[in-house]
Specification:
8-stranded mixed sheet, 1 helix, Cupin_2, Jelly Rolls, RmlC-like_jellyroll, mainly beta, globular, 7-stranded antiparallel sheet
Length: 288
């Protein structure tokens, strides 16, 4: 599905009453930089994982966890289930071969699979290159929800889960702000109700040219996490100051904070934006 929304965003926001000359910002938490933890082995060394957002992270309330996984060529995570939680697997480098119940798919760089809760899953590095991927789990990961090995037989779960696969930004909803930035909604349960998406947050991909920026905006009641894939960005807020976010790290923007972000570097910046709860037009303000 692809919709081009060019020069229509402002009229939509105006019609929804979402352009404000002087939005009120609450006092409280400011911008936060999240660097990944030191990687640690998982699944008996078949993969390594670095945590970015944990269940107990000192952040505004978020209903998901996030981490960065690395799997060497020939390795794979063993079959396991995440009881009650779905997992989004976004491939940053390499190729993933993903088992989801009775279906096996491959996903390359810039593609992702959304695995439904409780699915019997496994992720392998296909080919000769190392697999690097971002994992987002909702509700947040805890050791209690992960079932593998002999414990699988004791947990009867229907084996008919089907993944949602997005083969890159062109399959999403395209937004062109005319500021050297293209944004593509990849998955959003509000904007894409026909897909029966099993998550409450939304995910978008943005590519910002050198010197490009995203217009100043405010998300009412929505927290945004900006993960930088390549390059770097600077997030700026009248009350939260500025925050430089390098590749591999994430910046957190609390709900109701006015902010913009730009690319200060000499190469294109590629980012993933996660908005919780899911982004919607009526919750977006653009200060006049």
């Amino acid at each position: 599905m692809k919709h081009l929304i060019l020069l229509l965003l402002i009229p939509l926001l105006l019609a929804a009453g979402c352009v404000s000359a002087d939005p009120e910002e609450p006092d409280g938490a400011g911008l936060t930089l999240l660097a990944p933890s030191d990687p640690f082995p998982i699944f008996s060394g078949q993969a390594a994982f670095a945590e970015i957002i944990q269940e107990d992270s000192p952040l505004p309330p978020l209903n998901y966890s996030m981490g960065y996984g690395v799997i060497a060529p020939g390795n794979a995570t063993p079959p396991h289930r995440l009881l009650g939680s779905s997992e989004l697997v976004y491939v940053i480098e390499g190729t993933a071969r993903i088992q989801c119940d009775n279906e096996t798919i491959t996903a390359g760089e810039g593609e992702f699979a959304l695995l439904p809760e409780g699915a019997l899953q496994s992720i392998a590095a296909a080919g000769d290159a190392e697999l690097r991927y971002l994992s987002v789990i909702q509700p947040p990961f805890t050791e209690e929800i992960e079932i593998s090995g002999d414990d699988l037989a004791a947990v009867p779960v229907a084996a008919d889960g089907r993944p949602i696969v997005v083969r890159g930004p062109s399959e999403g909803i395209e937004w062109d702000y005319g500021t050297g930035t293209l944004i593509y909604t990849l998955v959003n349960p509000v904007l894409m109700p026909e897909q029966d998406i099993p998550i409450d947050y939304s995910a978008a991909f943005a590519e910002i040219l050198p010197g490009g920026h995203v217009v100043r905006n405010r998300l009412i009641g929505l927290t945004e996490v900006l993960y930088v894939i390549d390059g770097e960005i600077v997030i700026a807020s009248p009350r939260g100051g500025t925050l430089r976010v390098p590749a591999g790290s994430a910046g957190v923007v609390p709900a109701d904070m006015v902010k913009d972000y730009r690319n200060p570097g000499q190469e294109n910046a590629k980012i993933l934006s996660f908005v919780d709860p899911a982004w919607r037009v009526e919750r977006a303000e653009i200060p006049g």
